[in-house]
Automatic annotation (TrEMBL):
Keywords, sorted A to Z: Membrane, Transmembrane, Transmembrane helix
Domain of life the protein comes from: Bacteria
Name under which the protein is recorded: DUF3278 domain-containing protein
Bilayer-crossing regions: 20-44, 50-69, 90-109, 121-140
């Protein structure tokens, strides 16, 4: 079945089905949170921008977390050698992201002028690179365990 959402889904039928479940679960969770916010609106006042940001963040965070822990991203990692190779690639990708982020920051926002600004740039980019590595590593490890169990 073709839909406008098809471009967001993977080609693999199993992954596509799982992703559709994740989208649906996240939508139901978002509906529940928004309903709770609507009911509690008379007790607490929430800015519309905050509610929208919370809703979008919740939706994306849930889908990303479910996908990461599902172990469906790395279907070809079955052997220990492939696992180690992919782990190294993940680490190098995170390091390259760190370097690219710092360079692009300097290009678009200018080179930091003092030590405090440098610490801000490096701190944000390092935290982002670490989060990127950890989430990818968790997904890789779960995929590897799941693939080994299927053999």
């Amino acid at each position: 079945m073709r839909s406008w959402i098809t471009f967001l889904l993977p080609e693999d039928e199993y992954k596509e089905r799982k992703m559709l479940f994740f989208f649906a679960e996240s939508g139901v969770l978002l509906f529940a949170v928004l309903a709770i916010l609507l009911v509690t609106n008379s007790y607490f006042t929430f800015d519309a921008g905050t509610v929208l940001l919370l809703g979008v963040a919740l939706f994306l965070f849930y889908i990303t977390t479910r996908y990461m822990f599902a172990g469906i991203e790395y279907t070809d990692v079955v052997t220990e050698k492939a696992y180690r190779k992919e782990r190294k690639v993940t680490f190098l990708r995170s390091l390259s992201f760190l370097g690219i982020f710092v360079v692009l920051y300097a290009i678009f926002l200018g080179i930091p002028s003092d030590r405090g600004e440098w610490m801000d740039v490096i701190g944000i980019s390092m935290i982002t690179a670490i989060i990127m590595f950890v989430t990818t590593y968790i997904s890789l490890k779960r995929s590897y365990k799941k693939n080994k169990e299927l053999l």
